[in-house]
Design a protein that fits this description.
By secondary structure, the chain is mainly α. The chain contains six helices and no strands.
Length: 142
């Protein structure tokens, strides 16, 4: 009986830790490294060679995990920006809606059938412009 209780407790702890870890990524490279069981450095190296993060995840058979992980990571980041007062809730909702639409079209090729790469914010700014990810950075192209 004690053995069953111990195993059940371990299972509950493992599930709780997994749930916490799933949303604790700081960037797409960490997410892809985790879901593909690779090092962050190896994922970044492949990305620097021109392969989008969603393609790396897709090739590992982890596209769905990538898409859900990106959405969760961005939700947390947007929530933090709203809490910090650096972004309005209306703007965060708009960005999240655009990202959800882009992720729905993401097929793991790096292009989603519109002007945005899978995981991108899709709010028209595109990458760059010196304004950071919240103004249009793309989840795959980083």
């Amino acid at each position: 009986m004690l053995k069953k209780i111990t195993m059940l407790t371990l299972l509950i702890v493992a599930i709780a830790v997994s749930a916490f870890a799933a949303g604790s990524y700081n960037n797409p490279a960490e997410l892809v490294a985790s879901i593909t069981n690779r090092s962050v450095d190896s994922v970044i190296e492949e990305r620097q060679d021109g392969k989008p993060f969603c393609v790396i995840a897709n090739e590992a058979g982890k596209l769905d995990e990538y898409k859900s992980g990106m959405l969760e990571m961005r939700k947390q980041q947007l929530d933090q920006r709203v809490a910090d007062g650096t972004m309005s809730q209306e703007r965060a909702d708009y960005i999240l809606d655009r990202m959800e639409n882009n992720l729905a079209n993401c097929d793991g090729t790096g292009y989603c059938g519109n002007d945005y790469c899978c995981g991108g914010w899709g709010d028209g700014y595109g990458p760059g412009h010196g304004r950071g990810w919240h103004h249009g950075g793309h989840g795959c192209r980083w």
